[in-house]
Write a structure and sequence with these properties.
The protein is of the alpha/beta class. The protein is about 40% helix and about 15% strand. The chain has an 11-stranded mixed β-sheet, with helices on both faces. The two termini are about 15 Å apart.
């Protein structure tokens, strides 16, 4: 079982090297992360974007571009389209977002003729190494699905479970987060949480243990659960935190980063390959962790 990002990088260094296609690679932090990933032997990379801008950034950062293939494009639309086609044509194994809007990249991903549309829902999975928590936390979905219904939450859980399985986690504990830990007919999130738990018990959602509704404190603290008299296999042991909507996921994730000083990595699941996607404000370390995450998932798909 992978317990932190150092272990993640060591694992992916030992697996077959994946090839990464970077859409709109003309970004300082992206190039730093890709360069370090290549030096570590995690990936080979194809840089898609404005060649002169890529070369200028690389020169300023003392990055040797000799180890990369560069495909010049005149527009962000072309960058997204070509990077996606590299994966669709099995030239690359997975995709990374560079200096391009998420919507622009996903437009190419979801293209019916030359995209990477999978059979299910696209959702975002963040992985956090929190100094005050005893294992990695998988947070979903604070980046893609705005207000998921029950059917979408099932798919979001399935996508996150695939990531957790790639880390070797077993059993995988899933906590559907709510404001309270009891079912309240006036709070839809608690109804969905109870339904997910029952679906899991009946084998409709596999490869994990789901129990809820659970408030955040009960999901991550055994002591808090005991104080409230909660008996649950997930209480205090959550691996996956399923948030009720995008705002709560976004706020919780950024709180972990900025208040708890957590290290992180992020990937979109549900397409034909993992898509490395983190905030533009994230450091190249977070982007490097995300490349390692994408490589791990791509190798395990």
């Amino acid at each position: 079982m992978i317990k932190n990002f150092d272990e993640l990088i060591e694992i992916v260094k030992q697996q077959p090297r994946m090839k990464l296609a970077v859409a709109a690679a003309e970004d300082d932090e992206v190039l730093l992360a890709v360069d370090e990933a290549a030096k570590l032997g995690i990936v080979d990379a194809i840089l898609v974007g404005n060649k002169s801008k890529i070369e200028k950034i690389a020169s300023n950062l003392n990055i040797d571009l000799g180890k990369f293939e560069i495909i010049h494009t005149e527009s962000l639309t072309d960058s997204a389209r070509i990077a996606v086609s590299l994966v669709a044509d099995n030239i690359a194994d997975f995709l990374m977002k560079g200096l391009i809007g998420t919507a622009d990249l996903l437009r190419a991903v979801l293209d019916k003729e030359k995209g990477l549309r999978g059979s299910g829902l696209l959702s975002h999975v963040m992985v956090y190494s929190v100094p005050t928590y005893h294992k990695l936390l998988f947070l979903t979905d604070g980046g893609m699905v705005t207000y998921p219904d029950l059917y979408q939450k099932v798919q979001i859980v399935n996508n996150a479970v695939k990531v957790a399985k790639a880390f070797g986690i077993n059993p995988i504990h899933v906590a559907p987060l709510c404001a309270v830990e009891v079912v309240n007919p006036d709070m839809q999130a608690t109804l969905d949480a109870a339904a997910l738990a029952k679906m899991n018990q009946r084998g409709q959602i596999k490869d994990c243990i789901i129990d809820g509704p659970l408030a955040l404190d009960n999901a991550i603290s055994i002591e808090a659960a005991k104080h409230k008299g909660i008996v649950s296999p997930v209480a205090g042991q959550a691996d996956i935190l399923l948030v009720p909507n995008i705002e709560s996921g976004n706020i919780l994730g950024k709180s972990l980063t900025y208040f708890a000083k957590a290290k992180s990595a992020g990937v979109i699941m549900g397409a034909k390959c993992p898509i490395v996607l983190v905030s533009r404000a994230d450091t190249h370390e977070a982007k490097l962790n995300s490349i390692a995450l994408g490589s791990l998932v791509a190798n395990n798909k």
